Automatic annotation (TrEMBL):
InterPro entries, A to Z: Aliph_Amidase/BUP (IPR050345), C-N_Hydrolase (IPR003010), C-N_Hydrolase_sf (IPR036526)
Coiled-coil blocks: none
Domain CN hydrolase, residue spans: 2-249
Name the record gives this protein: Apolipoprotein N-acyltransferase
Keywords, comma-separated and alphabetical: Hydrolase
GO terms assigned for molecular function: hydrolase activity, acting on carbon-nitrogen (but not peptide) bonds, in linear amides
One Pfam family recorded for the sequence: CN_hydrolase
Tagged with keyword Hydrolase: yes
Presence of the UniProt keyword Thylakoid in the record: no
Amino acid sequence: MIRIAAASAHFGRDLAFDLGRIAKLVADARASGAALLVLPDAALGGYLADLRHPDPAALPPALDPGDPIFARLRALAAEMVVCVGYCEDAGPVRYNAAVCLSGDGVLGRHRKVHLPAGETIAYAAGDRFDAFDTPVGRLGMLIDYDKTFPESARSLALDGAQIIACLSAWPTSITNRAPRMAQDRQSRLFDLYDCARAAENQVVLASSNQTGAMGGMRFLGQAKVVGPGGEVLARTWSKAGLAVAELDVAAEIATARRVLDHLGELRPGSYR
């Protein structure tokens, strides 16, 4: 049995503030007994302030993967596995990126593959989905819009991922504002994608998200842990905090696949 925590929290441009908030979330997750903590996209440096017309002069700070800030994160993580999102400095381009680490070092990385229109001004697109081994099981990461595409999570599941960490800075609808969060189209889709990606691949999914506002965007929160049958095991709703669930990942997946094994019953020759 392990405990998995997914965070809802607000992060901005002040890296010192962000590190302090991460330290608090790590401490809270550790106190809850969590072995895995999934932090939001852009937890280091905050997300874009305007998705429709990003200002190139006001982008998140770009961090080299070897930046000392990641050594500080490894020290904070210690025995835990922690996933965190940031803006990656890759010389002539930037990536919306995530890193999974523990006190022993970096376990895996991901560069966001699917970029909504506004992000293409700020970021280059990644080109692959890879699962990797961790102390809590084989894991893969998605960032924001990646989870809209079933092929993203399916690629990770076919690579053996038992747990998919979805790191988001997912806002309410920009083009069709709703008077209440519960009526927001993006709020509904965020939950739908989380449950669908878990159920169709019969894996555990930990979904984090930002809260609060950045520029003209208001973030949803709604962090959750979803079981391999698509059932929500823990959630934060729209508030900041941790969604924590305890489960035997391998046993839950084996139970879900006992009669209907989606990955084993694929018919790739029939798909266009």
